[in-house]
């Protein structure tokens, strides 16, 4: 009995240690963001202040990065959602002969590493004259979000019983009304899952805008941060940390807000890995 | 009027209403998705195959006159010591950060968390997940500071009188591996937590009564029962690690002198820095082929675990 308690205690200590080690790098960022004299080493700010945040929030080119992130991630998410729902409906409801083949092909596509596609995509953008086009970038990002979006939407359509839709038809609803008034409200968790997942991934994406966009005022926050510290030279760690914390906020908020929605979709997500 | 309509509708039968012109309606509903996928997914693939057999370049004479060179780009790759080094680096990075790090370590944490105080479980889980939801570029930046000469790590080891090390120059591969473990372990941990929660207590108790030790239980009961979770995380972690670019590129730039140049970084350098598009495409195609193979395995393991597809599962904490 005694040895059991020791095992348990040592396991708890080990867990706690893992937790502490995992927090260290991020805690540095959080502390440094409030420290006007931030350095690369972790330390409690001598005079904590929000001056770093004010620095960032009043810097027009930097705020422009956030705006572009919103435009790109928001645009991509909106189109992914609409196109996914359209494509998922027949997959779920029409008894198509090849429905299974299509859904598994989509699952296959969710897993393809996007990094490898960027070289050919850049060439395509040159041929189509789309390099440095925000709209082109959004359309491309939409496309790579579609396999996951359609796959998830189909699964969530499947969870809404077909009888409910038919009951709405009996009551005189049109196909679209039945969807809008009966099916979509029941699919809310699914729709939220796709929206949040697509938005967060788009928000965090660095490589695609890094390759496809060039003009400074079109670059989203992810690329701006890279320029900020990638130029090396003299780095102001405080403002950079404040920038990073602000940049992470939407992702963190959406994740915590949506934990219970996300969990429903988690077990079947495909390209969960960045 | 409405009543009449309803009668016709019901007499037509729902099956009929549903299936009326179904192929046409399906085609219309599919069309935006198909158009986008054809334009931005299929086309680049065709281009990749096409250009990888040419000498296309972005500058110089080959930029104007594109010639077919057969398998020259692929032959060049396998004869290029830098390519071979990149393959080796990719395997090292994959094994230590992906398989040993994210997957085995993730499993280890999930096992440790079993039947622990929910508060501790939640707190530790959140610290691990923090890395996962941190955007890759921020991860890179955090670790650039963490490993810096005057960074957190050197401060800590300095407090026990170990001299400071330029981690990113002296141990570049170890550094990017640690950063990637921090970034990705949460995924495996969450998957294993969910799988372990799915094993019924009765089975474990029965094993205990039969005299099985903890290692036996692990080897003969727990691991076989969550086999599919192992294959799914294995494939996903592999795909994620193969595609990992930003973390390495922003931390070390693939250096020093190619020490952390993985296939993804090598491809980027050839195509976007050296402007050897044909060569870069050939490398991209090799990466894609490996990716496609693992994606195929992924689909297969998902089919096997079809019970979990579409089944809501409480995974996040």
Let me know the number of strands of chain B.
Answer: 0
User: What fraction of the residues of chain A are assigned to beta strands by DSSP?
Assistant: under 5%
**CATH homolog superfamily of the largest domain in chain B:** MetI-like
Structural class of chain A: mainly alpha
Identify the CATH class of the largest domain in chain A: Mainly Alpha
| Second-tier CATH architecture of the largest domain in chain B | Orthogonal Bundle
Second CATH tier, the architecture of the largest domain in chain A: Orthogonal Bundle
Briefly, what CATH class of the largest domain in chain B?
Answer: Mainly Alpha
Helix and strand pattern of chain B: HHHHHHHHHHHHHHHH
Number of strands of chain A: 0
On the 0 to 100 scale, the average pLDDT of chain B is: 82
CA radius of gyration of chain B? 26 Å
> Could you estimate the helical fraction of the residues of chain B in percent?
over 70%
Shape of chain B from CA axes?
Answer: globular
Please outline the helices and strands:
The complex is a heterodimer of chains A (274) and B (317).
Chain A: H1 2-33, H2 51-57, H3 60-93, H4 99-111, H5 118-127, H6 134-159, H7 162-170, H8 175-186, H9 188-204, H10 207-212, H11 221-230, H12 237-257, H13 259-266
Helix pairs in contact in A: 1-12, 2-12, 3-6, 3-9, 3-11, 4-6, 6-9, 7-8, 9-12, 9-13, 11-12
Chain B: H1 2-12, H2 14-19, H3 22-51, H4 72-79, H5 81-113, H6 118-133, H7 136-146, H8 152-158, H9 167-170, H10 172-197, H11 201-209, H12 214-225, H13 227-242, H14 246-252, H15 263-273, H16 277-304
């Amino acid at each position: 009995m005694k040895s059991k308690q020791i095992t348990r205690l040592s396991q708890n200590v080990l867990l706690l240690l893992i937790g502490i080690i995992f927090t260290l790098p991020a805690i540095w960022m959080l502390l440094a963001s409030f420290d006007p004299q931030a350095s690369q080493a972790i330390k409690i700010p001598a005079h904590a202040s929000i001056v770093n945040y004010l620095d960032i929030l009043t810097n027009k080119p930097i705020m422009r990065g956030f705006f572009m992130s919103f435009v790109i991630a928001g645009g991509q998410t909106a189109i992914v959602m609409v196109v996914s729902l359209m494509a998922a409906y027949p997959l779920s409801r029409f008894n198509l002969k090849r429905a299974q083949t299509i859904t598994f092909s989509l699952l296959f596509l969710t897993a393809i590493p996007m990094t490898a596609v960027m070289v050919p995509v850049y060439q395509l953008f040159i041929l189509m004259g789309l390099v440095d086009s925000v709209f082109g970038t959004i359309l491309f990002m939409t496309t790579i979000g579609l396999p996951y979006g359609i796959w998830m939407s189909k699964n969530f359509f499947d969870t809404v019983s077909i009888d409910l839709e038919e009951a709405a038809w009996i009551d005189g609803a049109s196909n679209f009304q039945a969807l809008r008034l009966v099916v979509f409200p029941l699919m809310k968790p699914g729709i939220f899952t796709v929206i949040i997942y697509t938005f967060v991934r788009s928000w965090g994406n660095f490589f695609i805008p890094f390759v496809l966009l060039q003009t400074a005022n079109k670059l989203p926050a992810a690329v701006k941060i890279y320029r900020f510290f990638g130029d090396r030279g003299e780095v102001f760690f405080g403002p950079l940390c404040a920038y990073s914390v602000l940049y992470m906020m939407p992702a963190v908020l959406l994740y915590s807000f949506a934990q219970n929605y996300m969990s429903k979709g988690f077990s079947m997500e495909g390209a969960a890995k960045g | 009027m409405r009543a009449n309509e309803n009668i016709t509708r019901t007499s037509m039968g729902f099956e009929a209403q549903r299936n009326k012109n179904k192929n046409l309606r399906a085609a219309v509903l599919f069309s935006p998705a198909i158009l986008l996928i054809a334009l931005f997914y299929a086309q680049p693939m065709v281009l990749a195959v096409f250009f990888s057999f040419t000498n296309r370049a972005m500058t110089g004479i080959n930029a104007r006159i594109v010639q077919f060179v057969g398998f020259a780009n692929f032959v060049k790759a396998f004869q290029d010591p830098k390519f071979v080094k990149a393959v080796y680096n990719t395997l090292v990075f994959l094994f230590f950060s992906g398989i040993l790090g994210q997957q085995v370590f993730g499993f280890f944490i999930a096992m440790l968390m079993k039947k622990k105080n929910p508060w501790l479980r939640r707190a530790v889980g959140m610290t691990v997940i923090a890395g996962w939801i941190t955007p890759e570029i921020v991860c890179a930046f955090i670790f650039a500071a963490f490993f810096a000469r005057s960074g957190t790590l050197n401060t800590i080891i300095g407090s026990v009188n170990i001299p400071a090390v330029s981690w990113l120059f002296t141990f570049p591969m170890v550094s990017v591996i640690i950063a990637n473990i921090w970034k990705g372990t949460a995924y495996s941990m969450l998957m294993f937590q969910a799988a372990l929660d799915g094993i019924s207590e009765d089975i474990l108790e029965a094993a205990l009564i039969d005299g099985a030790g903890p290692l036996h239980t692990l080897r003969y009961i727990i691991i076989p029962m969550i086999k599919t979770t192992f294959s799914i995380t294995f494939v996903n972690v592999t795909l994620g690690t193969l595609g990992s670019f930003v973390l390495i590129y922003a931390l070390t730039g693939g250096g020093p002198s190619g020490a952390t140049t993985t296939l993804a970084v090598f491809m980027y350098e050839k195509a976007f820095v050296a402007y050897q598009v044909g060569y870069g495409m050939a490398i991209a195609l090799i990466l894609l082929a490996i990716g496609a193979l693992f994606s195929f395995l992924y689909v297969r393991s998902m089919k096997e675990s079809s019970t979990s597809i579409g089944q809501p599962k409480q995974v996040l904490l």
